[in-house]
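[step 3/7] inverse_fold.run input=structure_tokens len=321
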């Protein structure tokens, strides 16, 4: 009996390939080629399953042209690159990989927060350029983190992990979310206080975005929101590109409506607005918040587990709908 065919749109660790090859006939992509919509449609003609990250877009057209497709398993927690409604209409299962990256992503959000508040990138670039000749009283004065107010927009598992880390900095935590956390969850998240979005923007010294991207959250941080923030505040985005209006953010940074930003995600990535490169008060990283080897392996294993259980038992663990 022949194995079902599976397309891997992203590179994988050797153990991932080995596991999947037991149940599937694999077409791998270890070179990390970027498939056009036409190429993706062509590759899916005989495929039953897909293993993917966020590097391929499964649009309504692509889904409609995949006659044998039964499951798309994403190694990421986000799945905005997949038209879930089109999959649901076709009876195609979509799975993702939640929770396994929470702690590593929270670590990185703090790395960005500290680097942004203390102007680490700006200072390093200045040093590398050979400008350091003497101590300066006002050299690269940044913002304190300890004792300040941490704001979190989107208080899921990662947001709560970020809040817990603030205990060591003696911070007050305020948050806004679609639904308020339980009293026990708030207690464990450094006694986080639920506030309106407007109050969150007004009070936060350091604002971290940790909400998923959807049409409802598109540009939820735009010009109007930046005007409500403190001019000394920093903005950290380790969530998804598109929740921030990048053009409005660039304008706010130039006008010093906010002090600085730390960004790991961008609209239309890997393309991004090149004006960010002209700003000294922004820290930029290429979507690497989950990039530790143990976590990336755990993410791939989660996607593998969904695919293996589907072919062996006809069910999955982390269905999106």
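[step 3/7] decode complete -> sequence:
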């Amino acid at each position: 009996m022949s194995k079902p065919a599976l397309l891997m749109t992203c590179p994988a660790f050797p153990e991932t390939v080995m596991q999947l090859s037991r149940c599937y006939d694999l077409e791998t992509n270890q070179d990390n080629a970027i498939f056009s919509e036409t190429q993706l449609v062509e590759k899916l003609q005989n495929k039953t399953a897909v293993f993917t990250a966020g590097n391929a877009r499964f649009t309504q057209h692509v889904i409609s042209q995949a006659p044998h497709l039964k499951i798309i398993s994403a190694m990421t927690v986000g799945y905005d690159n997949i038209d879930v409604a089109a999959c649901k209409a076709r009876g195609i299962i979509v799975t993702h990989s939640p929770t396994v990256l929470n702690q590593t992503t929270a670590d990185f959000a703090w790395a960005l927060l500290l680097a942004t508040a203390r102007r680490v990138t700006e200072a390093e670039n200045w040093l590398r350029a050979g400008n350091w000749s003497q101590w300066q009283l006002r050299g690269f004065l940044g913002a304190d983190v300890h004792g300040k107010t941490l704001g979190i927009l989107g208080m899921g598992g990662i947001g709560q992990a970020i809040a817990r880390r603030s205990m060591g900095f003696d911070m007050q935590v305020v948050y806004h979310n679609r639904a308020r956390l339980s009293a026990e969850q708030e207690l464990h998240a450094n006694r986080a206080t639920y506030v309106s979005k407007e109050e969150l923007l007004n009070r936060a010294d350091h604002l971290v975005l940790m909400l998923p991207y959807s049409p409802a959250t598109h540009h939820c941080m735009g010009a109007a929101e930046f005007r409500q923030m403190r001019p000394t505040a920093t903005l950290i985005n380790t969530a998804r590109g598109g929740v921030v209006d990048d053009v409005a953010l660039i304008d706010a940074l130039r006008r010093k409506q906010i002090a600085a930003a730390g960004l790991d995600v961008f609209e239309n990535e890997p393309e991004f607005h090149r004006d960010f490169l002209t700003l000294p008060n922004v820290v930029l990283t290429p979507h690497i918040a989950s990039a530790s080897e143990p976590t990336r392996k755990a993410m791939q294993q989660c996607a593998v587990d969904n695919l293996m259980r589907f072919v062996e038992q006809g069910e999955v663990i982390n269905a999106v709908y």
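[step 4/7] annotate
The radius of gyration is 21 Å.
The first strand starts at residue 5 and ends at 8.
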